[in-house]
Each structure stands twice: as structure tokens, then as C-alpha cells.
Amino acid sequence: MSKMVEIRWHGRGGQGAKTASLLLADAAFNTGKYVQGFPEYGPERMGAPISAFNRISEERTTLHSNIYEPDYVVVVDATLLSAVAVTSGLKKEGAIIINSNKSPADLKPLLDGYEGRVYTIDAGKISQEELGRNFPNTPMLGAVVKVSGVIPEDKFIADMEQSFKHAFASKTQVIEGNMKALKRSMQEVKGL
Amino acid sequence: MGIRERLAGNEAVAIALRQIDLDVLPAYPITPSTDVPMYYSQYVADGKVKTEFVAVESEHSAMSACIAAAACGGRTATATSGPGLALMWELLYVASGTRVPITLAVINRAMSAPININNDHSDSMGARDTGWIQLYSENNQEAYDNHIMASRISEHKDIMLPIMVCQDGFITSHAIENIELLEDDKVKAFIGEYKPAWSMIAGKPVSVGPLDIPQFYTEHAYQRAQAMKNSKKVILDVFKEFGALTGRKYDLFEEYKMEDAERAIIVLNSSAGTAKCACDALRAKGEKVGVIKLRVFRPFPLEELAKALSHVKAVAVMDKAECFSAIGGPVFADVRTACYDLEKRPQIINYIYGLGGRDVRLEDFTFVYNKLDEVVKTGKSGEIYRHLGVRGV
Predict the structure, then answer these.
(1) Which CATH architecture has domain A5-191?
(2) Are strands A34-39 and B176-181 parallel, antiparallel or unpaired?
(3) Which of A29, A59, A62 to mutate to test the interface with B (most CBs of B within 10 A)?
(4) Could you tell me which CATH number the domain at B253-387 has?
(5) Tell me: the pLDDT tens digits for B159-170?
(6) A151 Cβ partners below 8 Å, 6+ apart?
(7) Distance between CA atoms of B157 and B358, rounded to whole angstroms?
(8) CA–CA distance, A75 with A7 (Å, rounded to integer)
(9) pTM for the whole structure
(10) Whole-complex ipTM
């Protein structure tokens, strides 16, 4: 098996972490990869902690478990840092990307001694400004593609518009705002 | 060449059913199967199919409507999960006893109580003796392919039995993965036109569902049992034809690295893929391990499985259903029966695992292979009825 990239998403029910993982799977699929995108289903309540997962590889994987040793972790809601062990199993060669208006240096002490790279992106602000509402998943998607390099950026941008058309077939008015949010997050994500 | 796509298992099933273009699809929603009729109702609304979509008030009615549609000579299917399948119970027997072809997409879910929406096989394993053919699917591709093949098997004049196509709820039904679809016209050509041997609306009067007095009931049960026995050949013929069309070759079960295997794991559905990964890792260290993935559970491939296990030293049968028999799970019971007539029987242990959505990891199968190694080295099976990863015992 050539290198497989595994990504774990942490969010709260209703924030779109699941949708983001499915959109990332779409985007990677469009670059010719084999993909998995799936959420962990539990008692679904708005605001409850949820996880979603991606595997992206050059060959099909037959593995059908959750992801325990991810290359990247995406935290869609920074309040989860004190509620969920988000860095559990996270590879130190990888990175964690957190939705926050704070700097990576500010958040690093909250990460249980995680030694790898730490990134923050103010996805809430970008979402408010570009979509008029707090849907942080699209900016988080842009940030994870930027940080992980799992998909070539230009190809990603070109394909996302198609994916948004697929995902928002009945809400076409939100496609432009989502594209702006995506591009901004790729520029504004800050790393340590 | 096929169409490269990425789909969750449920949408793949809905697409297969759209390509088949059913005459009637009655449905009552239940998690995690709801997507199937949801997508299909969209196809109906968009005019992509000619199907009569019947929104019924329960699963019992969904299966009743399927039986009625099939008795009128229609192609029909529905989808359900867990408690929904349980509510169909009475009608499952009516469907097979009436000898009508119906395809049922079972998106496997644990049985209540306690309420659990997640995956295990206690629903379809509970329905294993209802006279339905059962196919199991490792991933979205197999779920799609099995549905394309299902009506050919079910409608065959020597069979005329309903068929369940099972896949794991959420694990594959809600996971997006790559898939290769067939073009609509190829599916249409493969499926062919359904010409039922009899129909309630064909002009010639027939009586459906009458009383069977003791002088006839046994003979009808015997005929149904013969149809189930005969279905193995038809299933293999349809698999072969599908393989020639798509390049995807299927058998009653898949043998993965079994040629020289001394230890084997027998498993169904999505966990089979994870077991293969564990097998690969141990093979890389030179260990002689393999996986058998059952694809057809009813009819049970007894002779074939016995042959495949004849050179194996120890077998672990994985049951994703606790059937409370006090002697092990349903797959275990049948596999053990299959080995009874072997001159040299493997030692066989049973693991109940992955209940109610408990995540099944590569390490779980490594653990099982290691346990099999102990069995081989000591020559003792020990406790044969085991539960994997139970906490607090």
C-alpha cells in the first residue's frame, strides 16, 4: 500500500463536520484518488460532539474501521479542546487544524503535549463575513487542503465549485459565498 | 469500462434499483436504510423511472405490497433495517411460500432493546430461515453489483424465491467510497424483460394464498426447499455472466490468501475488508493466514466451504449477531456442520463481535489470528463460544 492519508474531524452536531468530510472525499475523488468519507453515528443531537473520517489513497483500501492514528485532525469547534481528546493517536509528523480566532501558540498548551504542527483558522469569522452565518465547515475544508497538501490547490479550487453544485443543488445561492470562504481560509490559515 | 463514481452504499443501491426500473416500490423509512427509498422517490418525482412508489404505513405493509405487486407479475423491491425487518416477519414467510420474486435491501442494523441504530447482523441472521436467498456485501460496489444480479436470481423459473441483499448499516451504507457503475443500457440488457410464469392480472385466473391442508403443506415446503437447493447453480451462473460483463468475478464466498493458509477467519460484510488488512500484515511476517468472506449465506455453500477448509488447521468464525443459543452464533453453527464430514477437521472457534455498532478494528482480527495460533500450537480449542472485546468480564 502506498501512502494513505487519514484525517479525523471533530465537530459538534449541526456544524457540518460530516458534510465537510464528504466534500473532501469528493474533492480528492475528482483528482483521481481512492477515497473514504464517513461519519461516526451516535445519538445525534445539535451540539453534541461528533467525529467524521477521511481516507485518501492511490489504491483502494478495504479497511472499514474508524481512524485511531490520523495524519491530520481538524477541530471545527475549539470548545471541544477541553471536552474531547482530539490529539489522541495523532501522528507527530502530521498536524492539527483548529477553528479559532486565537494563535497556534495560544492553543498549543491545550493539546495534551502534542509535538506536531498546530494551525488555527478563524473559520467562524470567515463564514459570517462570506455566508452571513456560522457554517465553519467550508473554511475548515480549505484549511485542511492547504495544510495537508493532499490535493493540488488549483485543482481543488476548480473542482470545489462542481462539488458545491452537487451538495447544494437545492440552494444554489450559497455556492459563491462558499467559494470565497474556501479561498480566504487557504490564505489566512496560520501555522506553528 | 463502466462509470467511475463515488457514492455511499445506500445511494449505490438506489441507483441499481433505478437502472432496473422497478414496477412497484413500496417503502416505509427506517434508519439506516431510509436513503434508499428517499433517493428512489426523487427518481420517481423526476420522471427517471416508471415505478409506482407506494408510501405505506409500516414495514408489514411494505412487504405485503411487495408480495401483491409480485403476484401481479411486477418487478418489485423495498429496503429496511433491524426492527423494520422484524415487523416484516410474518410476510417474509408469505413471500417465499407464495414463491414470488422480491428484492429486499437489508441495511443491517442491531435489534432493540436497548435501542441501537448501528450495525450488526442480528436482523438478517434472525431472518435466515425464512426461505429467502441472502447475499452479503463487503462494500458499496458489492452492494450495487449484488442488487443488479439479485432479480435475475430471484426471478429464475427454477427458483422463484425472494432475495435479501445485505450490507452494513452506516459502515458502508453511509460511507462514500469509489465505485464503478454500469451504464443504464447494460443493466437493462443484463436484467432483461421479466416474464412471470403466472400473474393475478394476466387474464388466466389463478388463486394466490389459499389454505393448505395437511395433505399438501409438506409438499409445498419440500418444493421451496428444493428451490433453495437449486438456487446455488443459478446464483453461480448469474455471477459468471456478470463477471463476463464487468470483470468483477464473484463466487459463493471469496477466498483471500487461502491457498496455503493454516489459519482462517470466516466473516461477512464490511469487516471482511478489515480482516484482509490484518491478514496482509501477518502475511508480510510470513504467517500462513487467510480470510473467507461469505457472500451467499442462504443457500449455505456447505460442500464448497468444507473443501476450502479441508487443509486448514484452525478456523475462527466471526458472528456479528448474538443469537442466544448458548452454543454460538449462526454462521458458526453452519460452518461447523459443513466440516463434520471432513476426514480431517480443522479446530473451529467462534467469536461474537461488533454488536450494536462496536467498531471493528484491524487489531481485533490480529488478536483473533493470534488466538488461532494458540489453538494450533496447543492442539486445544478451549472455550469455543467466545465474545470479542467485552468490557468488564
Answers:
(1) 3-Layer(aba) Sandwich (3.40)
(2) antiparallel
(3) A62
(4) 3.40.50.920
(5) 999 999 999 999
(6) A27, A28, A31, A33, A145
(7) 41
(8) 11
(9) 0.96
(10) 0.94
